[in-house]
Amino acid sequence: MSTKTTRTQDILDRTPSSIALYRLLVPFVIVGLWELLSRWIGPRVLPGPVHTFSALYEGIQSGWVIPNTNVTMQAVVISFLIATVIGGVTGLILGFNKPAYDIVEPFFLSFYSVPKITMYPIFLFIFGVGLNTKVGFATFSSFFPMLIITMGAVRSIDDVYINVGKSLQVSRYQMFRHIVLPYILVQLVVALRLTFNSAFLAVILVELFAARSGLGLVLQHAMGTFNSEEILIVVTVLAVIAFVINIIFYGAQQLLEERWNMTSDEQMGI
Amino acid sequence: MSLTGLSSLPYSKQIRLGRATLLVAILATLELVGRAEWFDQLTYVPLSTMVETAYGLLVSGELTDDIITTIGLVFVSFVSATLVALVIGWFLWRHDKVKQVLDPYLIVLYAMPIFVFYPMFIIVFGLNVFPIVLIAFAMSVTIIIISTANGLAKVPDVLIDVGRSMGLSRREQFRHVIFPAAVPYIFTGLKLGFVYAFIGVIASEFILSNSGLGYQISWYYQQFQTADMYAVLLIVITLAVVVNLGLIRIEDRLHRRT
Amino acid sequence: MAKLEINNVSKTYNANKPNSVEAVRDVSCELDEGEFFSVIGPTGCGKSTLMKMVAGLIEPTEGEITLDGESITGPREDIGVVFQEDSTFPWRSTLENVEFGLEMRGVGKQERRDRAHDILELVGLSGFEDNYPSELSGGMRQRVAIARTLALNPDLMLMDEPFGALDEQTRLILGGELLRICQETNQTTMFITHSITEAAFLSDRVFVMSARPGEIKELVEVDIERPRDESIMTSDRFNEITDDLWEALKSEAQIGFEQSMTVD
Ligand SMILES: Nc1ncnc2c1ncn2[C@@H]1O[C@H](COP(=O)(O)OP(=O)(O)O)[C@@H](O)[C@H]1O
Ligand SMILES: [Mg+2]
């Protein structure tokens, strides 16, 4: 009984309402700092938040924000899904095969540190400019976090759980569904988040470098014409999307960690 | 060697053999795909051509300035990110309330496509090295802050009590107990921070700049000098992989102590 | 015929390799129906190895193990195992943990729920059905693991130092409860421990293993009447038995200790 109360107390102590309140204030502080910065640098070079938000509204009204966002996000979502499936399945296979895992792990870890955008020209040479190239490259770059975390998660499964399953003679499917999957779930949520972020960044970089539409292309144009207002609109849209998606994944991760008291893998630094 | 001979080798030797085989297979594929002439010369060149071209570029001194620029920028961004992050990480560790408020934001910031600020920085600061350093700094700093704050917080209470029971001062406590205990965690952050600083510099150079290895790749691409492009790409990849393997080695060693 | 027969069983890990370890050597013994049988020995002597072979999780390099005359070649439905490490699933509540085996065997929801409630009552965990393992103490988690195995009503129950990680008082309390449960269910049990008191308190017979490679060193009969309770611990007979066990174990524990000091 005592454990129950201390635990509830624990959670209360850790997230008292004042902390939740301060957390809500942080975005306002950021917007405030932005305003100050804009006044300091000069609103011509760096338009302030009020100006940017109204320009964003106008941009939505005049119809260039939404279609371009759609183009970008479509590529992000498609590559995210493909990378998740391919990376996840490969990660599971390699994770269950210890020798294979031990052999390939340093290769994937080192390749993770390569600035993959520099390999985009290869994709352009082979496939030309277009949605397929964009998606192909973003899939390629976001495949790695999914793979690395999934295979590491599978390897980290405590033998005793597998032995419990074996001694109960569970089927292969049951072993996967009821033991492996719940065990690696928290880490999979982390993997999904990092995979999404990689796909997101890859698509933006690709659009900045060579694309025919999308928010990255808008950025590229705006950069050429020193249109800082348009840049800030795009940055705001991208930042809000990234923020919302990350908060959702992070919330799910926290919920699982809190409830099961399991932690995610540290390999990728989170 | 016969198969039975292979399986009698100790496991770690078998793995090393496996890795060597895989490496050779990858290199051979890179070579043979070029030789097979599935692609024309403008699309792909064999590995041997890349190596030869890279050697030529390095020896002629054509790339020297770019290499110095890139390495210099990575160094400046990473070192400044480390200094700033260690201080902020330490501060967050000391002030747990602040850390709790900021934790989710740090995680989200780490995940943000920071790079979208590059065009803005160029408008504010002009097309020079400053925006590049700023981007690489921003990409690198968050993970080091997170790992420093978390690493310090993870030091087991019992170790702190040992120090206290021996009458160490606050400063001695930090210097001799807390910091060394947290080093393995902090190092993981430093490793990733370095990787992101490298990626930030190269990506910025690649997207828009006028010098550096990243810039050379995109320049050779635009000039259709495919062999040169692959040569610089090979240099960049080799640099990334070698440094990263070194860092992983140190990291493994540090973690073995914990 | 004995319930469980272990005939000349040996186990060498990584046989024929430079890093081979001979963990168990030529062990033979028999368990009767309803018997509570303990295996005691110094750390690293091969107790867990022996138990995993009986559980069908690993194969002996030599010899044979039979249950009801049938050779054990893999995990079986009629053998239940409680592991040395914490093996409760952190993602399942107490109730869901206890239901796990039944659920995997396709037992209907209502039936397994009722069964789980009964078992939780038996192990004294009523009221904690909805708590997750992270909210329970180590002792309670181990009870959950025991309940999860008991729920399947196995013919033979194997327990590998189930209280090994717990403090002395909790051990004694849980030992007392285990005694009560086993007397109620008349469960055939093979219990592994390194605690002399625990072995003498619970068992009908205690098998003392030598240091690695584990061999039968001695078989000690605990001829104290059942039902037992904590009061037997102060009896002269109990002290004689624990003295015998300690005598048999002492030199082996010394060897085991020296083995454990060699760093590899
Ligand atoms: N999977 C394994 N591979 C190699 N050696 C093992 C393995 N499992 C256990 N051993 C070794 O076998 C010996 C006996 O281990 P174990 O049965 O776990 O001992 P106990 O349970 O009595 O402490 C130990 O020296 C241990 O290091
Ligand atoms: Mg053991």
From TrEMBL, chain A:
Identification of the protein by name: ABC transporter permease
Pfam families referenced in this protein's UniProt entry, alphabetically: BPD_transp_1 (PF00528)
Keyword Membrane belongs to the record: yes
Family classification: Belongs to the binding-protein-dependent transport system permease family.
Record domain ABC transmembrane type-1: where: 69-249
TM regions (residue ranges): 21-41, 71-95, 107-129, 135-154, 175-194, 200-219, 231-252
Bilayer disposition of the protein: Multi-pass membrane protein
Record keyword Chloroplast present: no
InterPro entries named among the record's database cross-references: MetI-like, MetI-like_sf
Cellular compartments annotated: Cell membrane
Keywords for this protein: Cell membrane, Membrane, Transmembrane, Transmembrane helix, Transport
Gene3D superfamilies linked to this entry: MetI-like
GO cellular component terms listed in the entry, alphabetical order: plasma membrane
Organism expressing this protein natively: Natrialba swarupiae
Superkingdom in the source lineage: Archaea
GO BP field: transmembrane transport
Listed PANTHER family: ABC TRANSPORTER PERMEASE PROTEIN MJ0413-RELATED (PTHR30151:SF0), ALKANE SULFONATE ABC TRANSPORTER-RELATED, MEMBRANE SUBUNIT (PTHR30151)
UniProtKB/TrEMBL annotation, chain B:
Any Gene Ontology biological process: transmembrane transport
Stated family: Belongs to the binding-protein-dependent transport system permease family.
Presence of keyword GTP-binding: no
Keywords per UniProt: Cell membrane, Membrane, Transmembrane, Transmembrane helix, Transport
Entry-linked InterPro entries: MetI-like, MetI-like_sf
UniProt cross-references to Gene3D superfamilies, sorted A to Z: MetI-like
Protein name: ABC transporter permease
Compartment(s) where it occurs, according to its Swiss-Prot or TrEMBL record: Cell membrane
Organism expressing this protein natively: Natrialba swarupiae
Automatic annotation (TrEMBL), chain C:
GO terms, molecular function: ATP binding; ATP hydrolysis activity
Domain called ABC transporter: residue spans: 4-236
Gene3D superfamilies: P-loop containing nucleotide triphosphate hydrolases (3.40.50.300)
InterPro entries: AAA+_ATPase, ABC_transporter-like_ATP-bd, ABC_transporter-like_CS, ABC_transporter_ATP-bind, P-loop_NTPase
Keywords per UniProt: ATP-binding, Nucleotide-binding, Transport
Highest taxon, organism lineage: Archaea
PANTHER family the record matches: ALIPHATIC SULFONATES IMPORT ATP-BINDING PROTEIN SSUB, TAURINE IMPORT ATP-BINDING PROTEIN-RELATED
Listed name of the protein: ABC transporter ATP-binding protein
Organism: Natrialba swarupiae
